[in-house]
Design goal:
It is built from five helices and two strands. It is mostly helical. Helix 1 crosses helix 3. The two termini are about 20 Å apart.
C-alpha cells in the first residue's frame, strides 16, 4: 500500500507544520500517558482485559488522513499492518516505548 504510505507521510508533515501548537500539546499528554503504563509495550490492565495501543493521533490529523485516503487506503491504515507501519515511522505519535 505504497500510495497510502506516501500520502500519510505528506499529510503528517503538513499537519505538524500547520498545527504546531496542537501537536506540542498532544505530545505532552502522550508522554504523561506513557509514564502511567504497566509495561514498555503500553499494556494497560483493567476489567479483565489487557489493551495495547501502539499510537494515538490528534483528531485533526485523523480527519485529515480520513479525507485524503481512498477507501482501500484508509482500510489499510486502520489494519494491524497499517498501525504498525505508522507507529514505526511516526514515533512522535507513539504511546508506547516499544512497538
Amino acid at each position: 500500500m505504497e500510495s497510502a504510505k506516501a500520502k500519510i507521510k505528506l499529510l503528517v508533515k503538513d499537519y505538524m507544520s500547520v498545527f504546531t501548537e496542537e501537536f506540542n500539546e498532544f505530545r505532552g499528554a502522550a508522554k504523561e500517558k506513557i509514564s502511567l503504563q504497566n509495561t514498555k509495550f503500553g499494556e494497560v490492565k483493567g476489567g479483565g482485559l489487557v489493551e495495547r495501543v501502539l499510537h494515538e493521533i490528534p483528531e485533526t490529523l485523523y480527519v485529515i488522513i480520513m479525507k485524503h485516503l481512498d477507501e482501500s487506503e484508509f482500510k489499510w491504515y486502520q489494519s494491524k499492518e497499517g498501525a504498525r507501519w505508522f507507529a514505526k515511522n511516526f514515533k512522535q505519535f507513539n504511546v508506547t516505548e516499544k512497538v
